[in-house]
UniProtKB/TrEMBL annotation:
<dbReference type="InterPro" id="IPR019004">
    <property type="entry name" value="YqeY/Aim41"/>
</dbReference>
<dbReference type="InterPro" id="IPR003789">
    <property type="entry name" value="Asn/Gln_tRNA_amidoTrase-B-like"/>
</dbReference>
<protein>
    <recommendedName>
        <fullName>Glutamyl-tRNA amidotransferase</fullName>
    </recommendedName>
</protein>
<dbReference type="Pfam" id="PF09424">
    <property type="entry name" value="YqeY"/>
</dbReference>
<dbReference type="InterPro" id="IPR042184">
    <property type="entry name" value="YqeY/Aim41_N"/>
</dbReference>
<dbReference type="GO" id="GO:0016884">
    <property type="term" value="F:carbon-nitrogen ligase activity, with glutamine as amido-N-donor"/>
</dbReference>
<dbReference type="InterPro" id="IPR023168">
    <property type="entry name" value="GatB_Yqey_C_2"/>
</dbReference>
Length: 122
């Protein structure tokens, strides 16, 4: 985990990473690791590798302790509805605005799905 954080920080800040790294940067790396572990669990379950599933779930459980509680669907919908009320229709621009507001509190895939849903059925 430490090496993943270090690698992510170096990629973002180059040689000054130790001076510039933030808690948000660390949480971003943890979220990426969580996503990777979830994908691995799914793949290992399909392959019948229960030994690897157990290991991945144990690691995932530890990582989940570092992530703040996710935003509720109701709160996410309120934010998206408010942003949609500006009249913007470009999905990319909307996604960017919503993610800036919910960063660290909602997964990007979840935001994307909810945004698409509310764009189609306001």
């Amino acid at each position: 985990m430490v090496s993943a954080v270090r690698y992510g920080a170096i990629a973002k800040y180059a040689s000054e990473w130790e001076l510039k790294i933030t808690d948000s940067d660390v949480l971003d790396v943890i979220r990426k690791q969580v996503k990777t572990h979830k994908e691995s669990i799914e793949s290992f379950e399909k392959a019948g590798r229960t030994d690897l599933v157990s290991r991945e779930k144990a690691q995932l459980e530890i990582l989940m302790e570092f992530i703040q509680a996710e935003m509720s669907d109701t709160d996410l919908e309120k934010i998206i509805t408010r942003i949609l009320s500006t009249g913007e229709k470009n999905f990319g621009a909307l996604m960017s605005q919503v993610m800036a507001e919910v960063k660290g509190k909602a997964d990007g895939a979840r935001v994307s799905g909810k945004l698409k849903e509310l764009l189609l059925h306001p």
